[in-house]
Amino acid sequence: MHLRHRLIAVSVAASLAAAPLVMFSTTANAAPGTKSLASVLLKDTTKAGNPKFDDNGKDFDILTAAVLAVLADDPESPVSVLTDGNVTLTAFLPTDNAFKLTGNALDLSARNEERLAGKYVDALGVNGIEAVLLYHVVPGFKINAKAAAEADGVELETALEQSIEVNVTRDGIFLKDMSDARDPQVIIPDINKGNKQIGHGINRVLLPAF
User: Fold this and answer.
1) Residues 68-88: what's their mean pLDDT?
2) Cys-Cys crosslink for 176: which of 38, 106, 165, 201, Cβ 3.0 to 4.6 Å?
């Protein structure tokens, strides 16, 4: 199936459950900007507003497609918070390679990004895609990479009301989700730094309990 819907970005929102709030506060003196994460993701789209599916596994075409699909189905979806740069949040953003790796674990594979995006929608439905995206967003807190590196063991309650746990090792920052699959790792830190909304690219998709 060809993905007709337009998506924005994935990521699931969360409030912090057991950590000093100061750890996640903005430390810069200058007021943070209001550029949204959606505007960052949508820079890499066609003139028609569709994702530029390509062979670059390090960008976010499938994620963009997923978010646009949810918003096309329901413009009032909670995922739309990613378009409002006045709302403080942290989002974990799976790369295209992340969707491929997780897709293999879910028996979802395709020759190209566009087909893989369609397979995710077919398998999970728009509501399932929405749940996955919300599981990547932590609203109310701007958590930069430095703060995350000092938050080993902290649980983040996402917008889906399911938690993810920060696991810091010598190899980097990992996130424990509700699945038994390999934990996603932060590989592209501090996307949209300097604004109220900050993102971190991850190498696998966070999976909630369905």
Assistant:
1) 96
2) 165
Question: pLDDT per residue over 145-172, tens digit each?
Answer: 999 999 999 999 999 999 999 999 999 9
β-partners of residue 87 are: none
* Whole-number Å distance between alpha carbons of 107 and 195: 37
Judge residue 78's burial from the number of C-beta atoms within 10 Å of its C-beta, 0-12 exposed, 13-18 middle, 19 or more buried. Answer: middle
Beta bridge partners of 91: 137, 199
Mean pLDDT taken over the chain:
87
Q: Provide the token pair at 24.
A: 């996640």
CA distances from 118 to 40, 126, 144, 158, 204 (A): 22, 11, 32, 25, 18
Burial (CB count <10 Å: 0-12, 13-18, 19+), residue 11: buried
The answer to whether 85 touches 151, Cβ cutoff 8 Å, is: no
Residue 64 tokens, joined: 């963009």
Q: Which CATH class is domain 14-202?
A: mainly beta
pLDDT, tens digit, 9 for 90 and up, residues 90-139:
999 999 999 999 999 889 989 899 999 999 999 999 999 999 999 999 99
* C-beta of residue 118 within 8 angstroms of C-beta of residue 168: no
The predicted pLDDT at position 48 comes to 81
